[in-house]
Amino acid sequence: MDEPIEPDPTAEDAPEPETDLPPFVIEGARSARARCKLCRKKIDKDVLRLGTLIEGPYGVGYIWEHLTCAARRSFPKVEQAYQNKAWELAKSPPETVPELSELVELREEAVAKKAEQLEIPHAQIAPSGRSRCKHSGEPIEKGSLRVVLGRSVEFGSQTRTTPINVLPQYVGAALGEQDSATEIDGFEEALRANSRGVDTEAMDALLEEIGPLR
Ligand SMILES: [Zn+2]
Fold first, then answer.
1. Cα separation, 38 vs 16, whole angstroms
2. What is the distance in A from the centroid of ligand 1 to the CA of 88?
3. Residue 61, Cα to own-chain centre: how many angstroms?
4. What does the pLDDT look like over 70-120, one tens digit per residue?
5. Confidence band (pLDDT; 50, 70, 90) for 210?
6. Long-range own/partner contacts, residues 12-20 (CB < 8 A, 24 or more apart)
7. Which of 9, 35, 136, 152 is the residue whose CA sits 20 to 30 A from 24?
8. What is residue 178's DSSP assignment?
9. In terms of domains, do 108 and 123 share one?
10. Is residue 92 part of a domain?
């Protein structure tokens, strides 16, 4: 918990804490000026946002988050806001808000994605025919096995690992690239340990297709 910030009692313009303000509101953004505290992007006008009442040095006010960002990253707050029917407390209540179950789905997706990101490298069955091999540019057929490797990407002064999809026959070449963030040493063990829903037989066939790595 952050330490509460006391309002300055000597500042004449500082409003009294208005205890009748609700702790949460859900509303369509009344302008596009506020930034989401979670993703840092502007919240477009009319897009649903969650306001959390905070007490700052100049009094009380709301910090804003996209409702969807809040669902992904601070779900208990969203649950609380729904319990309060926080959209009914907005200055101009939105016509509709998503069902809480839809937001639960968003959270679960985010949790699954996060878990998956920790598991590079892994093999997975392509859920659609929309992805392409990042090494060759070839489309990856729906239902076929693809390998997810890590690639180093620079963001300003930071280097992060981003997942890339690669066709089995290009895994060796992709691992040899300069920006590869996946080790060749221990690759097979890591692939076996991290892949979900790929049985031993399919994994053996996949490793054969990948071929020797040196
Ligand atoms: Zn956001």
1. 28
2. 22
3. 26
4. 999 999 999 999 999 999 999 889 999 999 999 999 999 988 877 766 589
5. very high
6. 14/58, 14/59, 15/59, 15/60, 16/59, 17/55, 17/59, 17/60, 18/60
7. 9
8. T
9. no
10. yes
Contacts of residue 173, defined as CB under 8 A and 6 or more positions apart, other chains included, come to 135
Distances, alpha carbon 96 to alpha carbons 28, 72, 105, 171, in Å? 10, 20, 18, 47
The pair of structure tokens assigned to 50 is 């969650």
11: pLDDT strictly greater than 50? no
Residue 27 parent element (H or E) = strand 24-28
Q: How far is the CA of 94 from the centre of ligand 1 (A)?
A: 18
Do 101 and 40 fall within a single domain? Answer: yes
Mean pLDDT score across all residues of the chain: 89
Q: pTM (2 decimals)? A: 0.52
Annotate 40-85 with DSSP letters as a single string: --B--TTSEEEEEEEEETTEEEEEEEEHHHHHHH-HHHHHHHHHTT
Taking the centre of ligand 1 as the mean of its atom positions, its distance from the CA of residue 22, in whole angstroms, is 21
Domains in the chain: how many in total? Answer: 2
User: Is the pLDDT at 137 greater than 70, yes or no?
Assistant: yes
**Per-residue pLDDT tens digits for 144-165:** 999 999 999 988 888 888 999 9
193 and 136 share one domain: yes
Give distance in angstroms: CA of 170 to centre of ligand 1. 36
Whose tokens are 């959209």? That residue is: 87
Same domain as 89, residue 45? yes
